[in-house]
Design goal:
The complex is a heterotetramer. By secondary structure, chain C is mainly alpha-helical. Chain C starts with a helix and ends with a helix. The mean pLDDT of chain C is 86. By secondary structure, chain D is an alpha/beta fold. Chain D has a domain of 160 residues: Rossmann fold (3-Layer(aba) Sandwich), CATH 3.40.50. Helices cover 31% and strands 25% of the residues of chain D. In chain D, 49% of the residues are buried. Classes of the chains: A mainly alpha, B mainly alpha, C mainly alpha, D alpha/beta. Chains A and B meet through helix 4 and helix 5 of A and helix 6, helix 7, helix 8 and helix 9 of B.
């Protein structure tokens, strides 16, 4: 069925590149990028937060695409990809959802507020948790694959609706628009742009490495499951042997 | 025509079974009543307060009662091997979605009617002639909940932790619907000009259409191995 | 500036998450290996018993 | 009988798997109209999977299954020609036997559903209990009602998954009579069984499945136990 993945799939060297790039990004963030005038040093958190958020959306897109392909083709490799991307995506979602409040405390004076972006991020995180729970408790492997694919497709269609509803909910309130997130792009210095670019590349590369690692593990796990079932099948019990 | 008739046959069978045991209906209404009671302790009810928090209370009661009804309803199907019996008939899997959706909508609408009336009485809501508007919003909300609920109750009932699984999957996905329903309900309760709030009703309708279509399209994948 | 404390906390959490996840994957990989060992042993036992 | 009549069930290189996990490897066989076939095999051999695919409940990963010459995946109306009995009854406990049978009959054809329901109940000897709710039935009665449900649309073929499991001797002999009657009226019958004696009693042809492949297919051998052991016993 599935071919044994070759040892030299380049994952090791890719991991090294990802690590080096992340270290470079860290260096640029603290040594190269200028201190922002209004927010001060804490603004450097955004070099982590924004790429993490972007990578989360990439993860979502991969899960959606793989789920769609799974329902279309019913090949287990698409389900393996969806399962892996959802888990790695959860790591980046968690990264975004923890660095966000830590950045917000000194800037906004509060860890959490039910602002539009925070709320929708929180909802997305909950959807992913539900997805992983369904993976864990959904029954036998083939059933889990179908159920999770349906959840991923419905969840993905929900993303824009969540975004707009939360936006309306907050901006149309009289007490809205307390604060807007430090939006990159407005009068950004070129050194900031470069730092952001490296940070994005580092995050995406880290995502790729983790995804490949997780995917390899998933495949091995499934092959082992199948092997175990073959080998530990109960020896045939014959009833009615009085015949 | 033939399909429609078969779908209605399934709905009639479901409703007959439900009206005989009244399991989903009674448990849902009693549960909604309990939520209304508990919130009563949280917020000192008075005419002014109801305008602010009434919508939240009403929709909390409706949402949690709906989750309860969904769990009950598909559990009945599961007892005898459930949907598989229906899958052996000429009805297509997508038609089964329509049948289950209509049944769920009927039961949720009945339960919601009772809940809304209880809410109005218990919280002294000065609703006046805005009752039809409130009914429209509640019914539109129930369509959306039933559309998602049919899909996820079918999934949850076959998982190991179904009581937790259904709300865990359903509620985050229904957030836009809930926001829109709460916002338009509070506009109605506060007697604000509804023309300014019409975008919420449009959002509810869009949500209903999108998730009915997706539910219809993906239901075969849930049922068929 | 006390902000640096927050900054440090944020970066620690983020890197911690990635390395924690890698560690978690490594643990799972180890448990797979253990299962594989068990199966191999079982297979050998079966073969010698038959 | 015209010679060109297609087989009641034709299975060609059928496989069902999910990734590396294989439920059915590659099964090919053919069942003539009016034949009575019993499938044997240890747990997890693929019997239920085969029945479920033939019943249009599961899709094959590869290969083809033809019912009366037509692909099961492309012709859902073939469900009118098969009746399926599984270890679950597919009945609704809160409704009576009559309501259950009429309901299923109506889904196939609204005309004359009530009459067909009564006829099906009579065929399994359930006519006295028609107005009792299914929840009050014993396992044997429930099983009979389940068979009546499978017969209510007058199918040409019956697919039964472990119909004798959990029945006491009296109920089992009742079921045997019902199956013999259905077979004599010209229906093709395919069932699975893990009980060699019971399963071989009515079968004209048997199949033995092991590890998802068909190890034996043909007339019932004189010493079924020995054949069975040879198929599933030693290392393959």
């Amino acid at each position: 069925m599935s071919t044994r993945p070759s040892r030299s799939d380049g994952l090791g060297s890719l991991a090294i590149v990802a690590f080096v790039l992340s270290a470079v990004s860290l260096g640029l963030t603290f040594l190269y990028a200028p201190t922002e005038r209004v927010e001060g040093d804490i603004q450097r958190m955004l070099y982590l937060h924004v790429p993490a958020a972007f990578t989360m959306y990439v993860g979502y897109a991969v899960v959606f695409f793989a789920s769609f392909m799974y329902l279309l083709r019913r090949e287990s490799r698409w389900d393996e990809l969806a399962a892996s991307a959802a888990e790695v995506g959860t790591v980046f979602t968690s990264m975004m959802i923890t660095t966000g409040p830590i950045w917000a405390k000194p800037v906004w004076g509060t860890y959490w507020t039910w602002d539009a972006r925070l709320t929708s991020a929180f909802v997305l995180w909950l959807i992913l948790i539900g997805y992983l729970m369904l993976r864990a408790y959904g029954g036998h492997a083939e059933q889990v694959a179908r159920y999770c694919a349906v959840l991923a497709i419905i969840g993905f269609a929900d993303l824009p609706i969540i975004h707009y509803s939360v936006q309306w909910w907050r901006t149309l309130h009289p007490d809205a628009k307390i604060m807007t997130e430090g939006s990159p792009g407005q009068g950004l210095e070129s050194s900031m742009m470069i730092t952001f670019a490296v940070a994005f590349a580092a995050a995406l590369l880290t995502f790729t490495v983790l995804l490949k690692l997780r995917l390899r593990l998933e495949r091995q796990n499934r092959r082992l499951d199948a092997l175990q079932r073959e080998l530990t099948r109960p020896s045939p019990v014959v009833l009615g042997s009085t015949n | 025509m033939r399909t429609l008739r078969a779908i209605l046959t399934v709905v009639a069978k479901d409703m007959r079974g439900e009206l005989r045991t009244k399991e989903a209906l009674t448990s849902t209404v009693v549960f909604a009543l309990l939520v209304l009671l508990v919130f009563n302790f949280g917020f000192e009810p008075g005419t002014r307060d109801v305008r602010l928090v009434g919508a939240g209370i009403l929709w909390s009661a409706l949402l949690f009662a709906a989750v309860l009804a969904m769990n009950r309803l598909l559990l009945n199907e599961r007892e005898g091997g459930g949907l598989e019996g229906l899958m052996l008939t000429p009805l297509s899997r997508a038609d089964l979605y329509v049948a289950k959706f209509i049944t769920l909508l009927c039961i949720l609408s009945l339960a919601a009617t009772v809940t809304v009336l209880l809410f109005i009485v218990l919280y002294n809501v000065p609703i006046g002639d805005r009752l039809p508007l409130l009914a429209t919003v509640v019914f539109a909300g129930m369509i959306g909940l039933s559309a998602l609920g049919t899909t996820f109750a079918t999934i949850a009932v076959r998982t190991r932790t179904r009581e937790v699984m259904l709300p865990l999957l359903l509620i985050p996905l229904s957030v836009p619907l809930l926001i829109a329903c709460v916002e338009s309900t509070s506009a109605i309760l506060a007697a604000r000009d509804f023309a300014d709030e019409a975008h919420w009703l449009r959002l509810i309708v869009a949500f209903d259409i999108v998730f009915l279509a997706l539910g219809y399209a993906t239901y075969p994948a849930i049922l068929e191995e | 500036m006390s902000n640096l404390g927050f900054l440090f906390a944020g970066f620690t959490v983020a890197w911690g998450l990635v390395f924690g996840y890698v560690w978690f994957l490594a643990r799972r990989s180890q448990s797979l290996e253990a299962r594989l060992d068990g199966l191999e042993r079982r297979q050998r036992d079966n073969a010698s018993a038959d | 009988m015209p010679p060109a009549e297609p087989a009641a069930l034709e299975v060609i290189d059928l496989g069902k798997s999910f990734g590396p996990a294989v439920a059915l490897a590659s099964v090919s066989c053919s069942v003539a109209p009016g034949e009575f076939v019993t499938l044997f095999g240890p747990n997890g051999a693929g019997k239920t999977t085969l029945i479920r695919i033939a019943a249009t409940l599961a899709r094959p990963t590869h290969g083809e299954v033809l019912l009366f010459g037509r692909d099961v995946r492309k012709a859902p109306e073939l469900r009118r020609r098969i009746g399926v009995v599984s270890h679950r009854s597919f009945l609704y406990g809160e409704l009576t036997a009559r309501e259950n049978l009429t309901f299923f009959g109506r889904l196939f054809d609204p005309v004359g559903a009530e009459e067909r329901a009564i006829a099906a109940a009579r065929a399994v000897g359930l006519e006295d209990r028609l107005d009792d709710s299914v929840r009050s039935f014993s396992r044997g009665l429930e099983q009979r009602c389940s068979i009546a449900r499978a017969l209510v649309h007058e199918p040409d073929m019956l697919l039964l998954d472990e119909p004798f499991a959990g029945l006491d001797p009296l109920a089992a002999s009742n079921l045997e009579t019902v199956l013999r009657g259905a077979h004599e009226s010209g229906k093709t019958i395919i069932m699975t069984s893990h009980d060699l004696a019971q399963g071989a009693l009515l079968a004209q042809r048997i199949g033995i499945l092991h590890y998802g492949s068909l190890r034996y297919w043909g007339e019932c051998p004189p010493d079924l136990q020995a054949t069975f052991n040879a198929c599933v016993g030693g290392p393959s």
